[in-house]
Amino acid sequence: MELVWLEDFNALAQSGNFSRAAELRHVTQPAFSRRIRALETWVGVDLFERTTQGATLTDAGQHVLANAQEMTRRVYQMRQEAREVAGKQARSLHFAATHSLSFTFFPGWVRAAERTSPIEAIRLHSDNMRACEQMLLGGEVQFLLCHQHPEVPPLFPAESFYSKVVGSDVLIPLAAGALGLSPEPTSGGPQPLLGYTAESGLGRIVSARLRKEPQPPHLQTVFSSHLAAVLLSMALEGKGFAWLPRTLAEPEMTNGKLCRALDEHWDIPMEIRLFRPSMALSDFAEDFWAKL
User: Fold this and answer.
1) Which CATH architecture has domain 169-270?
2) Where in the chain are the domains?
3) Would the pTM of this model clear 0.90, i.e. be above it?
């Protein structure tokens, strides 16, 4: 048994796709497939059903999943605590945060949190939502900071994690003022959309909102990225409109460089949540959590 096999297993169970999971694990797909097969050989049963649509957990795989996630989290936590006890590492808090919150919300929020709970050291991992979820699942970080919408649950089991609301935000459809978009998104020609890729948590939220709409807008995706900051730059260039977090786009809205592309009906309110595993963390991390 190797720890890397369990990490691969968790990534494939989360994504349901060999190529996406291999990308997430930064290995080639053939190498990733060999490691999954090695784990199945060690266990002695198939853990995934392989189809042309992807990979789904077998009954045995479902049974293994919770234990595999718990084991990887505990191994990483054991390593961190051992280093702290030996004085090899400062008593650190490890966060994963999506890109947009890393640049906008996180610095001010963590400064405010330090007023009640001084922090010796912080390590922040900034990535897309899918990668951040995998870091929390695998125990590489203690906390995940992300946007959250009630209709779009994160891709990890709710019973194994706690969360707290630490802020709020809203996705607003914005475009350069000179773009001249139609005020009626359900009529006329398609609106040029700057969209999010599948790795983006914001993209999941936008997609869920559009699926709920009885008359969804007529959109044509002309550009996509998992980075809200990239979509903001493209919007400023007049390439289309994008649903952008207010925490990110407020300066451009204030100075008039970005204006509403659609009315308030199309705004999407969100929470900013901090997630952590339900298993006990270090005393230092637990103290931080309790004082939030």
Assistant:
1) 3-Layer(aba) Sandwich (3.40)
2) 3-71, 169-270
3) no
